[in-house]
Write a structure and sequence with these properties.
The structure is a homodimer. Chain A is elongated, with a radius of gyration of 25 Å. In chain A, the strands form 2 sheets. Chain A has a 6-stranded parallel beta sheet, sandwiched between helices. Chain A has 3 domains: about 45 residues, no CATH class; about 130 residues, 3-Layer(aba) Sandwich (Rossmann fold), CATH 3.40.50; about 130 residues, Rossmann fold. In chain A, β3, α8 and β4 form a beta-alpha-beta unit. By secondary structure, the first copy, chain A, is of the alpha/beta class. Chain A is built from 14 helices and 12 strands. At the A-B interface, α4, α5, β2, α7 and α12 of A face α4, α5, β2, α7 and α12 of B. β2 of chain A pairs antiparallel with β2 of chain B, so a sheet runs across the interface. The first copy, chain A, binds a DNA duplex through α2 and α4.
DNA sequence: GATCTTAATGCAAACGTTTGCAATGATGTT
DNA sequence: AACATCATTGCAAACGTTTGCATTAAGATC
């Protein structure tokens, strides 16, 4: 505390070498004799020396930081507290660390409109991972056009000037719906907001399967929160009674809201109504009945996101990619 | 893209002033004539100019960054995916941003053992917020002793050389238990790990209320995950049948695991067994029956954590502080 | 009109790294 | 013995800000 911060030149003097030698030694540069390197590294450890990242970043023109920005719709009630989003962030954190980068957790509040200026020109991060494609992609596009290394979690089918990684929502939608039908449902209900890119794909899958099987189907457009789902099911039952026997919820949170509403009205799940969710959040297996759902492999996706971003940093061109999702059958269907 | 990065001196030349004037203008320094300031600020906006944070940090010896480190036990299965932890992080993020700071999301993997070296000497952040006190506080203590500005989310009763912010776990434990008793329970069960500081306090509250009311009570020590809780309840029922009619779960995740196990065995909640959790995560109100719980005011806590950290940055001495928790009564009790 | 004060701006040093190039001494080659 | 090669190290510039101090111009005071 009393002593002033040790800097590289101090360490060098302590070791009896020049600053440049010390710098190279700490970076394990083979230019420096091996025993010198080890001696200096040991000395650094002994004195709890850490390189000044600010100075290093200034000189290197690199931060070794990746910014993650949670990109939510203005009109949704879905919040950054959503378990699925947080799971994604947490997986990205792991993947980022494994590559030796740090994670700057950001949002539109801090980054404003000009992401390139804020993160890249501002030397706060070397690249940006956007979680949540949203409905409006202007900011992402602008950043990409300005040359920001950027990757997005979203719907990989969307054509864009930046790579998008996400699940095969269409196929996921199909297999969820087919599963409902296989379990005997014939009057299906989709709950979600098809205007949202990823959810739209899930809905397309739903429609595709419905058409193929020639069963009844309806769609109700809701905000993707359990509260909205809960309220919506209640309204539906009140208005038209039990007009469905299978529900494909666009997310697990929605499915859980549905589940609660049905149980409160003594509708049996899965006997009267079968439910399939999407995401496979931790809650899915701990709900009662446990939730059948389409599992998104967020961990694989996170790794891919980071890899693609790093590729961009080394100048390569990258493309969008779909991650296979998988049906996890539990008791709700 | 083709053009090189605009730097402050370029902007200054464009404006026909010196670099120092430009710098002061962007920082709204009243030394500079108001109209000059505004002219330069407008020019900066027009050219999408952003200050180079690395250079600024180097010169200022300040980063305007706060590191958040999620500090988990080695032996727990509780992960960074735990909804409650993530909620806390997300609230801290908001609070940090409101003060004009950025959030570096970190963990032991990156920061290693020497937090002071990594974050402070390394000029990666100006201060550290630790989420999760854990059982072993050596690293936190060492960092504090080395002069790291640091605050901890945990049990405020623990005496330490750093401030701890957290809920009044003891009182929370009492009111949860009293509520169970008031609802007619007379054979109580506590589930959790009293070895953990915060949970220990909750258990003390439990014991206190039990003693006062002179009711039967038992404790089963489990890891604080829903899986452990689920398994534990099943084992308990198998071994000794239904020997309890009220459960105080040390967290909502634990409570939800309990709930599932009971429902699978057709034990009615709340008729046969009343349950109270702790935290009030989003899931608590969407479970069926909705979970009675002790709500932790994470948002207020986050704000307090940040304020205390900033106080330390400006040299003030800070102290631990308890946040009032509150009983939220729902259908599980 | 000379001097003093004040407002506005510019100069140049400093923050702590990394790295191209030069320098040194040792080794090998003819 | 002269020269080329190689391994190891040091010198000094550059990265882009911020800020104490000096400077200038303009207005105020006598």
């Amino acid at each position: 505390m009393g002593t002033t911060q040790l800097k590289l030149s101090d360490l060098a003097r302590l070791a009896g070498v020049s600053t440049s030698t010390a710098s190279r030694a700490l970076n394990d540069n083979p230019l420096i004799k091996k025993e010198t390197r080890e001696r200096i590294q040991a000395l650094a450890k002994e004195h709890h020396f850490s390189i000044n990242a600010a100075a290093s970043r200034l000189r290197m023109q690199k931060t070794k930081v990746i910014a993650v920005i949670i990109n939510l719709e203005a009109e949704t009630k879905q919040s950054v507290d959503d378990p699925f989003l947080l799971k994604v962030v947490s997986d990205i954190n792991r993947a980022v660390n494994r590559k030796g980068y740090e994670l700057l957790l950001s949002n539109s509040y801090m980054a404003g409109e000009d992401w390139h200026g804020y993160f890249i020109s501002g030397r706060r991060a070397d690249g940006v991972i956007v979680v949540g494609q949203g409905k409006e992609q202007a900011r992402i596009e602008r950043a990409a056009k300005a040359g920001t290394p950027i990757v997005v979690w979203g719907d990989p089918k969307t054509s864009a000037n930046y790579p998008i990684v996400g699940s095969d929502n269409f196929i996921g939608g199909i297999s969820a719906t087919k599963h409902l039908i296989a379990k005997g449902a014939s009057k299906l209900l989709f709950m979600g907001d098809p205007g949202h890119a990823e959810l739209g794909e899930r809905y397309r899958g739903f429609c595709h399967a419905v058409e193929e099987a020639q069963v009844e189907a309806q769609m109700v457009k809701i905000d993707i929160t359990s509260e909205a789902a809960y309220a919506s099911i209640n309204a539906l039952l009140r208005a038209q009674g039990l007009t469905f026997d299978g529900i494909f919820a666009c997310s697990d949170m929605v499915a859980l809201g549905v589940l609660k509403a049905l149980k409160e009205r003594y509708v049996s799940v899965p006997n009267d109504v079968r439910i399939v969710g999407f995401d496979d959040i931790a809650m899915a297996q701990i709900s009662f009945p446990a939730l059948t759902t389409i599992k998104q492999d967020t961990s694989a996706a996170a790794q891919l996101l980071v890899e693609k971003l790093l590729s961009q940093l080394s100048g390569e061109k990258t493309t969008s990619q779909e991650i296979p999702s998988s049906l996890v059958i539990r008791q709700s269907s």
